[in-house]
Design brief:
By secondary structure, this protein is of the alpha/beta class. The strands form 2 sheets. It has a 7-stranded parallel β-sheet with strand order 8-7-6-11-9-12-10. Strands 1-4-3-5-2 form a 5-stranded mixed β-sheet. Helix 6 packs parallel to helix 11.
Length: 269
Amino acid sequence: MNFHYLESAADPRVTDYTQLTDVHLRKLREPAEGMYIAESSRVLRRALAAGHRPRSFFLAEKWLADLADVFEQHPDVPVYIGSAALLEEITGFHLHRGAMAAMQRPAPVPLPELLAGARRVAVLEDIVDHTNVGAIFRSAAALGVDAVLVSPRCGDPLYRRSVRVSMGTVFQVPWARLAEWPADLPVLKEHGFVVAALELTGDAVDVDQLAARNPEKLALVLGTEGAGMSDETLAAVDLAVKIPMRPGVDSLNVAAASAVAFWELRPRD
């Protein structure tokens, strides 16, 4: 086995794991270095099952037996082992979910390939909270969304918190980052999608009304937290749709709203 026992937090071999709590650095560094962090034994197993390649593993000795089969399948990948205190000093937080792995980011999926055969697509406009991104992916995986597209300024689905909140379902749902926003929206229409914005506007139709139409292909655009959908995006979509609510409440958290809408707008045949 390719095991390496750590003795110092300054060990240069584990720079992939240093100070993972620094959000700004991670957002800049992980994509630039072509990597992401899979946190917890369950999540890293899902990443491996999706065909993603590990750069290294990082864990306390007590988790070795639990992941022995993984290490046997990847004998050339280094496994870094340390005490709980040392691992916490390196990462900046206490590891209590088993192992971590630094994973190689997969190559982006071309947009036409992503849309081929898809009937339901979610589009995230500038959703910056990684918890919301992860929760939306989890709902998408559970409720039949075939692909997710994210705007250029949207949070990274492979950021550590997004991956963890999604329980690794970000590896199940194909996704791609759009290059131009909202200029890329017409590509969906060219592929036969009705494009609907989940937004409270004066002419928005109730979500169950759109569900009754049961469009063959539907792309649902979800807007950023707080400010909601941009005017440019609303001008580019085919229609707006809303979730009816009791008086006194005007909206749901975007992750909760996505789950309601994904379920209601699922294909009916």
